[in-house]
Amino acid sequence: MRKIFWCTALALSLLAGAGCKKKDERLQRSEKAVEKTTEDLKDQRKELDEAQQDLNRERNKPGDEPRDMEKKEAEVRAQESDVTAAEGAQLRAKEDFVRAAKDHLGVIDARIRDLETRADAGAKSFAAQLREERNALAAKVDRVDVRAAAGWDDFKKDINDSFQKLDKDVDAAMHGEKAPAERPLPNK
What is the pTM of this model? Predict the structure, then answer.
């Protein structure tokens, strides 16, 4: 019975590990989508600024026809609409990123729960430490919406590094390696 339990636990951990790789690819795709939508938004804002400057120049010209002014105003409204659409696309991309990250965290949760079921105190202690690291990473992921475009690269690197470290630590724990002694906990 014990042998069946451990074989099942090993099979589940291997499957969860394979799931981690798939989730990691999804996370990477969502990161790239956020980068692309952020760049698109930046371009749309630049075009809006240019259209507004053109409109202001037209307003300051003496003797322009009203049709020219109306055309420039229509261009500005179109650019404003494009900026709004780009902001919406960026928001959806960030939401997809958060979903992918939370799915990955779910896989990690399952692996930590599996570790917690083990009888030895070392595994349970390591699981508690991993749970704290996981919770700190989840808090970082939840703050994605307050990240400015300028800080996205640093944020993405921090999230990726945290996921890689946590995945590595969970893998080590699942394979019976000892927890590093008195490892400092991540910043929350």
Answer: 0.69
